[in-house]
Write a structure and sequence with these properties.
Layout: H1 2-20, H2 23-26, E1 28-35, H3 42-58, E2 62-63, E3 66-74, H4 79-91, E4 97-100, H5 104-117, E5 121-123, E6 138-140, H6 145-158, E7 163-169, H7 172-187, E8 191-197, H8 205-214, E9 218-222, H9 228-237, E10 246-250, H10 259-262, E11 270-273, H11 282-294, H12 302-321, H13 327-334, E12 338-341, E13 344-348, E14 355-367, E15 370-382, H14 385-389
Parallel strand pairs: 1-3, 1-4, 4-5, 5-6, 7-8, 7-9, 9-10, 10-11
Antiparallel strand pairs: 2-3, 11-14, 12-13, 13-14, 14-15
Bound molecules: 4-hydroxy-3-methoxybenzoate (VNL).
Residues 41, 44, 102-104, 126-128, 172-173, 224-226, 252 line the site of 4-hydroxy-3-methoxybenzoate (VNL).
């Protein structure tokens, strides 16, 4: 019986090859990767791309019996380009999955296309809480700002910080960071004063001047990854490094890609985030070593891990579906998926398709001559608090 079934499926297979003449093409699953590879956010695109490619290289670029082919497109950080590229990838290249999305407006620009085409959209970088609600085909491998910022409020309250000045970039993730931190911190008895800085061509000086005059116990900062060095330069120019005001916030301002460039002024910052290149686990040590070997002179940051794990979600979903690429089948395969990432354990919440993960409290320190965010406390398996509160 088994033999006969094999024989029949074998014949069917040959018949199909003869019929379509595209046997090879059918064995390839195309994955679109849309990222800012040029412009002010190019460092994010490069990190995500390096992470995604490292995962494929380590796994022979196959999954579920299919060959995975990555098609990288540069949106330059422009949402209109993201939308057009997503459309072209779906219609012309017939990708089975859309992935990447360096910033919130870019992720949102592709959501409608994912929904209409029923193509999974793996958000590897952008981190505004509501993104996953923009399409039932969105699954996130990055993080959410409220997930990282609420634990910061708890730490500040426990550590005798009573008055905080917040400086955030004025768009989705910054507003998320400010709101979630402020609500939690005020509920615990703290006071907050807030300013928002434009996303494009930010000049932090006037905002830092106000922060310095307010004389808070701590300055809570969110700027997107890659911008931290610019922020820290102006922080020093305003003398804030010598003011005794503590620097706190989600980890984006001191991302691993920038730390050496920022230098000693970053030392002592307390941040909350899901990934540090110094995370102490065998899985992370192997990841960091492989990353440095593949891309000499670089260090993976949280964006690289978003790309690496996002590609793993796609590959493991294909393994589960045995190569079936229908969008709803792939998304279903990702729901509830759990594995050990270089960041620690992760879970895709089956209800929200958002990521559940540890948040670590870290202090920026010099270790073996290099600057790292050293984790000293773990808040296990944090769900996005914004969506959790809606239930
Ligand atoms: C976003 C969030 C972008 C956090 C970031 O870096 C970041 C976003 C570009 O959602 O736009 O660190």
């Amino acid at each position: 019986m088994t033999n006969r079934r094999h024989l029949i499926s074998g014949i069917a297979g040959i018949a199909m090859m003869a019929f379509t003449g595209h046997a090879m093409a059918q064995d390839v699953v195309k994955v679109g990767l849309i990222l800012p590879m040029t412009g002010p956010f190019a460092s994010i695109g490069k990190q995500v791309d390096m992470g995604a490619r490292l995962f494929l290289a380590q796994n022979g670029a196959t999954a579920g019996g299919k060959k995975l082919e990555l098609i990288l497109k540069d949106d330059g950080g422009n949402a209109e380009s993201t939308r057009r590229l997503a459309q072209e990838l779906v219609v012309n290249d017939k990708v089975a999955v859309l992935s990447g999305f360096g910033l919130t407006p870019l992720a949102l620009a592709a959501a409608q296309i994912a929904t209409q085409a029923k193509v999974p959209q793996i958000v590897m970088a952008a981190a505004t809480a509501t993104i996953t609600e923009a399409s039932p085909f969105i699954v996130r491998s990055s993080f959410t700002l409220p997930q990282a910022s609420e634990p910061m409020a708890d730490w500040a309250l426990k550590n005798n910080i009573k008055k905080v000045f917040t400086v955030v970039t004025d768009y989705g993730p910054g507003i998320d960071a400010e709101t979630s931190f402020t609500n939690k911190f005020k509920a615990g008895g703290g006071t907050v004063e807030s300013v928002r800085v434009p996303l494009r061509n930010p000049d932090f000086a006037p905002f830092l001047q106000r922060a310095s005059e307010a004389k808070p116990d701590a300055l809570f900062v969110f700027v997107p990854a890659g911008i931290g060095a610019q922020f820290m330069k102006q922080f020093v120019e305003r003398g804030l490094d010598k003011s005794g005001i503590k620097l706190i916030g989600p980890g984006d301002v001191v991302d691993d890609d920038l730390l050496e460039g920022i230098g000693d002024v970053a030392l002592g910052a307390i941040t909350t985030q899901h990934y540090s290149a110094a995370h102490d686990s065998a899985a992370n040590k192997a990841f960091v070593a492989a990353f440095k070997a593949a891309y000499p002179g670089t260090r993976p940051n949280f964006m690289a891990v978003g790309g690496y794990d996002g590609m793993r979600l796609i590959a493991e979903a294909l393994n589960k579906t045995i190569g079936k690429t229908d969008g709803d089948v792939l998304v279903n395969a990702m729901k509830g998926m759990t594995f050990e990432s270089p960041r620690g354990p992760i879970l895709i919440d089956p209800e929200t398709r958002d990521i559940v993960q540890n948040i670590y409290i870290r202090r920026t320190e010099r270790k073996n001559g290099e600057i790292y965010n050293i984790e000293f406390e773990t808040i296990p398996m944090v769900k996005d608090p914004v969506k959790a509160a809606k239930k």
